[in-house]
Amino acid sequence: MKILHVIATLAPRDGGPSKACFEMARAVARRGHEVTIFATNMNGLDDVLDVPVDEPIERDGVTIRYFPIQFPKFLGNSRPMARALEQTIPQMDAVHLHSLYMLHCKFTERACRRAGVPYLMRPHGTLDPFLYKRHRFRKMLLETWFQNRVTRGAAKMHFTTEEEGILAAPYVFGVPGVVVPHGLDTDEYDNLPARGRFRARHPEIGDRPIVLFFGRLNFKKGLDVLTRAFAEVLRAVPDAHLVIAGPDRGMQEKTQGWIDDFGYGDRATFTGMVTGDDKLEVLADSDLFVLPSYSENFGIAVVEAMACGLPVAISDKVNLWHEVANADAGWVTPAEAGPFADAVIAALSDVDGARAKGARGRALVGERFQWPQIGRALEDAYAAIL
Length: 386
Hints:
Helix content is 43%, strand content 17%. The chain is of the alpha/beta class.
């Protein structure tokens, strides 16, 4: 099959959607299909990626074409991409459209409709009620302009969890859904660094148990819940230490302020963004992964933690919570400080029980979230809409 993915940007700073798009494309390419990605060169609203524009490049078996971002940048506009979609989509068997409320959606729907080529649409969490209600007036204008037609025109919606499909149901006009999760290259987590390397770089932690938050620092991640909950944790487990690892998205100063207000600044460490070996070292040295989000479409960081054998404590707004609960791989609570603190205390107070949950989480990743399995599932999803 010839499959085209269309996304506004592949910039690493965009986080989950760009990474997920490429990794899904690569998983299907590895099954022998011809896979292409179209994206603009947008790198936030103030920069562009240092990539060739409108010249195909090859990366791990996937062809990528970048197009120049144009005004208005916040809508991901690129007329050169629009023209290329009109030329390219008639040659494709299926299209995989990523995210909503951007002009690449309008361009893709129009080209697919004219060529009679079906498309899957992956909303990447934008139809979660928490996010759907944000900037509602602007979204209503975009829905009237093009987004409602884009949604109605999809052959199927692509969700990464059953929960995402349930939450999105009121907004998809009855378009059927298919669930294919995100995944990991689990080989990366099979041989973790020896414990102690991260702690050696942060002597303030010593041998205290580490509670790890790993993700972008923005409001929806529930950092207000986490900082309040950890104050309660310290009353029960006074030697615990909180590590907050991830790039700042406007919340680090506020989060540090909450920690200072609660009076445990010496029991919290901010690392900034960690990648590669640094990421594996902090995961290897941690005792519990936490994510008390108000909204989380999938939660790939949860899967990464489970791949390392870490037990997890997450809110029931992380759409992966059903899978975690059913596998008994951790604790699931409301996104509220009291219940979340109780979960963290339980994990730190029962080390053997927590390790058992971590082992079950690692087994779950092996069963459900490896890319070869996901590549087969995507292949089936494309075949079903042809």
